Amino acid sequence: MSPDIIATYFIIVLLVIGSFFVLVAGIGLLKLNDPMTRLHAPTKAATLGIGAYLLAAMVNSFLTGTGSLHELLIMAFIFVTAPVSANFMAKANIHRRDCLPHPPELPDGDTWATLNVPEEDREIEETSPNA
Question: For the packed helices 3-31 and 46-63, what is the interaxial angle rounded to 10 degrees?
Answer without folding.
Answer: 160
